[in-house]
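Incident review: delayed structure delivery

Summary: a single-chain prediction request sat in the queue longer than the usual turnaround. Root cause was a stuck worker, restarted by the on-call engineer. No data loss occurred. The affected request and its eventual output are reproduced below so the record is complete for anyone auditing the incident later.

Affected input:
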Amino acid sequence: MSTADDLARIALQEQKLQFASFDEETAWRLGCRLRVLAVERGLAVVIDIRRPAQPLFYAAMPGTTPDNPEWIRRKSNVTFRFQRSSYAIGLDMEQKQSSLTERHGLPLADYATHGGSFPIRVQTAGFLGAVTVSGLPQRADHELVVEALSAELGQDYDGLRLD
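Output delivered after worker restart:
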């Protein structure tokens, strides 16, 4: 699949994977769903769900390191800044042969355009927060989040997944 195809598919994911409402209980269910997937598959990931400046769910699986929360912070900063998937922003920068530092003056120490952070949107309210996973290759981090969101929202993951 080409970068342009991936970007189109991620735009579809972001459009389809929106909540009717989102609160602390929803964050807990989504986080637990991600954790169950990680346990079943033996994945060493960190899972973080938050609103701006308000953590809602956090779990670190066996095998993760202190570096994973740092990736979480940097990837979610991208999602909060652009209100888009960190993977989409990274692919967009790749396609433009640029970086966030070149285009926006954003420091690499605080922003990572690697996959794994996905916007939480409420249909009637818009952008609310981010769900972020770190520990796998970036495309797999992104897809794990999309799979869990699809299940939580009753969407067909096979119709939304990246090829």
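Verification: The mean pLDDT is 97.
Action items: add queue-age alerting; document worker restart procedure.
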